[in-house]
Amino acid sequence: MATILIALGANLGDRGETVSQAIDELAADPAFSLLGRSSLLATKPVGGPAEQPDFINAAAKYETNLSPDEVHQKLIEIEHQHGRVRALRWGARSLDLDLLLYDDVVLETPKLTLPHPRMSFRKFVMQPAAEVAAEMIHPQLGATMGQLWEQLVNSPPVIELATPPGPTAWRLCEEVQKKLGKDVVSIPLTAPHWPDSARELVDLLEPSPSSIKEDAGAVRLLPYWSEISAVIRDTSATTIASDAPSRLVILWIPAAESIAPQENTWWSPKAREDLQRRLIEAVQEKVHGPRLCLIGHDMTTAITEVTAAVEAVQ
Description:
Layout: E1 2-10, H1 15-28, E2 32-37, E3 41-43, E4 55-64, H2 68-81, E5 96-102, E6 107-108, E7 113-114, H3 123-133, E8 137-138, E9 143-144, H4 145-154, E10 158-162, H5 167-180, E11 185-186, H6 198-201, E12 219-222, H7 228-233, E13 248-254, H8 269-286, E14 291-297, H9 299-313
Parallel strand pairs: 10-12, 10-13, 11-12, 13-14
Antiparallel strand pairs: 1-4, 1-5, 2-4, 3-4, 6-7, 8-9
Helix pairs in contact: 3-4, 5-9
């Protein structure tokens, strides 16, 4: 038997009743045994069209003898029974069921990714998840649901962008700030005069985010990662661990067409490929709290993802 964690949400119809019914319907299936259910949580919508109704969210923990794919299919069937139509990403829905964890399985197929790739930084997911399954471990981060929730609640509102530093990263941050406003997103740095070589680039990087002054409650979106200097130098050096880690680290490996031309003068294609590989490895090794991975995403898609992530961590 596998232990699984499921997230539930609805923002159409009788939201609370629908979510409660879905938990009970799974519990009534002989293939599932209900181990716990969270309280119902009212939340604002994140991403998607504006002016959506508020959501009711919850989480439930079960034991099951079904495979991950079979559980996923069962969740889709229950969504359909409640009138779910997948017409618009992050749009309003009568019922949304997501398989967050299936024991310690790590899986990526065209239909299913485990653990859920955006669960760790979404407060509307992690609050009920930590309530009902605080001890369950995220197999890629090595942290429990309770630990991830505590970091989301107690860490400063800082998001670090783990990406090759340069004008591409700055543009992403500026575009997200334009979408959400300066009262929501602060970029606590001024774009530097970019150097002629990657060797000079490291000298421009600012201190770690823990030393940056808070900006009136806005989320501070940093166009670099605190470990990036060591990644660029290809050394094992690391920054001093902060008592208050960032709320979220976003790994972004941009699509080639989204990279600013100036950056192509800093690294040859092979050198950039090596840098990106080291960056991915470093994030996987060092980031054990909330994180989002955007590999090969173009600028437009990255703006959408990061904008939604900023909203989700607030």
